[in-house]
Amino acid sequence: MPLTALALNCTLKPGDAPSSSALMAQQYLDALAEHDVVGTAVRVVDLDVKPGVETDMGDGDEWPAIRRQLLDADVIVVVTPTWVGQMSSVANRVLERLDAELSETRDDGNPILYGKVALVGVVGNEDGAHKITADLYQALDDCGLTIPAQGGTYWNGEAMHTVDYNDLDETPEATLSTLRTAAANAVHLARLLSREPYPA
């Protein structure tokens, strides 16, 4: 079976509004596709994801639909913009909802997200990418996801300027090559874990 990927775009911009996070999420999916990974992206802000730490918060909560895609995927990509040096509130909401998976287990007793691989992307025209990446790594690891070597990329624009990642004529080589390395390492790790799962 081919590997699958789910990219969670944590932009604050709804609908079809131009989004640097959407661009990087698609670049990740394109890089994964080069390794025969079939992927899809979800713009989380367009869905009614309720606050809470349960798998289903009821009353119109749309997280369960995202969760089904997440459980079916082998590679999970989280891309967030930077605001006041922090990840977006949407990215924080995703982490809050993933907290519910700590109490969900598979038949072998392991957390339900064991064996899935996580990638991270951060965009913004202010500092904060390293801290955001570290925070995402820690939270995703806590939930049972595995981080590959060099499993993230980022782009920071010039301080106090208004040029965004999706305004650039072309993606800087350093950002894109790091993204492609992260994708290749994620696929390698996901294939290893599919053949040799973590011990029960």
TrEMBL record:
UniProt cross-references to InterPro entries, sorted A to Z: Flavoprotein-like_sf, FMN_Rdtase-like_dom
Molecular function via GO: oxidoreductase activity
Domain NADPH-dependent FMN reductase-like: 6-147
Leader peptide range in chain numbering: none
Protein name (Swiss-Prot/TrEMBL): Flavodoxin
